[in-house]
């Protein structure tokens, strides 16, 4: 495994960038970069680790390969899939998420990570149907952050529409990671009427309800996708 440590100019902020030879590598991105108490895993295509070729043109097979590649990278830095906080899934056909959900939970133990699913027009390889990236917890910390216990707190708000394959929020270290919210009315469980303004308002109301359930004000959001 190639292991490099990058230092900021002032030599007080350290990022740990790592590649493993037993997972697909990309010349333009590192497989994993740790900073503070998180590790960020580059998006993985459904490429066979041994051959470097795209696996069969089947959404379940391709999704499983993406998760296997993430699992291999995570294991190479002495973590496991139980440390995954967030998964982003990029799909050519958004309907394929139904098939992915039949194999997805088996890759995790205990709780499932928060999740965002996005439809895209194309992926870096022509016959790729799916790509996934991940964020994992990093108990070791990077200097000057001291090591912390890997205690993660998943929660759901019963008043907000739930997804069987992702909790509303997972807290670790000083952050809460919120699963993507669709414009579903909290009371009826149906998509709200109207256009993009009404749907945007409903998404934000759902996020606000989740935050209120963990005693966090909307003003403490640091990033919205």
Structure report:
- This protein has 225 residues and is α+β, with helices and mostly antiparallel strands.
- It has two domains: 136 residues, RutC-like (60s Ribosomal Protein L30, Chain: A); 68 residues, 2-Layer Sandwich (60s Ribosomal Protein L30, Chain: A), CATH 3.30.1330.
- The chain is built from three helices and ten strands, in the order E-E-E-E-H-E-H-E-E-E-E-E-H.
- The strands form two sheets. It has a seven-stranded mixed sheet with strand order 1-2-3-4-7-5-6, with helices on one face. Strands 8-9-10 form a three-stranded antiparallel sheet, with no helix packed on it.
- The N terminus is likely disordered.
Number of strands: 10
Estimate the helix proportion, in percent. 10-25%
Estimate what percentage of residues fall within beta strands: 15-25%
Task: Note the overall shape.
Answer: globular
Q: What summary fits the major beta sheet?
A: 7 strands, mixed
Overall pLDDT: 92
CATH classification, class level of the largest domain = Alpha Beta
Strand line-up of the largest beta sheet: 1-2-3-4-7-5-6
Taking all Cα atoms into account, the compactness measure Rg is 18 Å
Tally of separate domains: 2
Which fold name corresponds to the CATH topology of the largest domain?
60s Ribosomal Protein L30, Chain: A
Ends distance: 33 Å
Q: Per CATH, which architecture of the largest domain?
A: 2-Layer Sandwich
Q: Give the H and E element order.
A: EEEEHEHEEEEEH
What's the CATH superfamily of the largest domain, by name?
A: RutC-like
Structural class per helix/strand content? alpha+beta
Low-confidence stretches: 1-10
Helix count from the secondary structure assignment: 3
